[in-house]
Amino acid sequence: MDVKIVEVGLRDGLQNEPVTLATEVKKELIERLFQSGIKHLEVTSFVHPKWIPQLSDADRLAAGLPRLPVTYRALVPNLRGLKRALDTRIDEYAVFLSASESHNRKNINKSIRDTIPVLREVVQLAHQHGKRVRGYVSTVFGCPYEGNVPVQNVVRICEQLLDMGVYEISLGDTIGVAAPLEVKHRLKDIMSAVPASKLAGHFHDTRGTGLANAYVCLEAGIYTLDTSFGGLGGCPYAPGAAGNLATEDLVYMLNRQGIDTGIDLDRLCETSLYVQKHLGKPLPSKMLQSYAAKKKECGGGNEDGTGGH
Q1: DSSP β-ladder status, 40-45 and 71-75
Q2: Measuring CA to CA, which residue among 170, 153, 271 is closest to residue 217?
Q3: pLDDT per residue as tens digits for the range 21-48
Q4: Whether 235 is catalytic
């Protein structure tokens, strides 16, 4: 089994933090994540800076990305955002919308119906520039405003995204309400119309079910999973939504299953400890907490979280 881990911490992870990291710190994080073995990095979002000030350095960060053998991705909400991104080192882009009307209006300030043509324009122009585009569908398993979201809504949006030319669709449990059995059933319904090879899982761990839900994806044949270093994350328009599934927790589970991700877990934990220092708070990853406790007990490492592996 070849599992692809998409690291979204620099975008989805940092967008909900009260502390805004300096651009140079983000670049250092990219270097460290690469040294850990991460190959797919979502680094920022080209939304208007006033909406997500934590990512207001998108142009500067994306224009000065370290030249590494990784795939850099950024979120683009519209043509204006895409045109900004085209002037940078970003390799591919991502468009997004919600499966529930209320969340889409809160998140994008448009109806789902009005959002689709905007995204189609973005995908078309990106393709003209030889760039691939991924699609995100939020609130696939539940909405903070509407509750249950009919699976037919999800399928219809997925079909529209594929029709406009996205190469992959990430299914988001934006508020972390899903449990394994419902994930299994919902994936079965979605995969009746969309092949597993075109899907990815994006789970938040608000209620502690993120890792179990990710495992259900693997059992269903969906081998691309979005995670965030340290378990950072949350959605500004989904009250109470805790962080994404932690990259460290997923890598640990896969390692124990005999699945090699190519990621050095110790180096990854050291990277998250480095982030903790700059954010001024512990991160929620269970694997990271275990690593930090063991490190403290052994008296290893330096104060800045750059100690030995």
Answers
A1: parallel
A2: 170
A3: 999 999 999 999 999 999 999 999 999 9
A4: yes
Torsion, Cα of 55, 60, 66, 70 (10° steps): 50
From 287, 274, 245, 228, select the one nearest 27 (Cα to Cα).
274
Report how far apart, in Å, the C-alpha atoms of 54 and of each of 47, 176, 209, 253, 297 are: 11, 22, 27, 31, 34
Q: What is the pLDDT of residues 215-229, one digit of tens each?
A: 999 999 999 999 999
Angstrom distance (rounded) from CA 94 to CA 295: 38
Catalytic residue among 143, 158, 217, 235: 235
User: Quick one: tokens of 88?
Assistant: 């940078």
Task: Indicate yes or no: pTM above 0.85.
Answer: yes
Residues with Cβ within 8 Å of residue 237, at least 6 apart in sequence: 103, 106, 107, 144
Name the burial class of residue 182, with classes exposed (0-12), middle (13-18) and buried (19+) by CB atoms within 10 angstroms of its CB.
Answer: middle
How far is C-alpha 170 from the chain's CA centre? 9
User: Taking every pair of C-alpha atoms in the chain, what is the biggest distance, in angstroms?
Assistant: 57
Distance between CA atoms of residues 193 and 133, nearest Å: 20
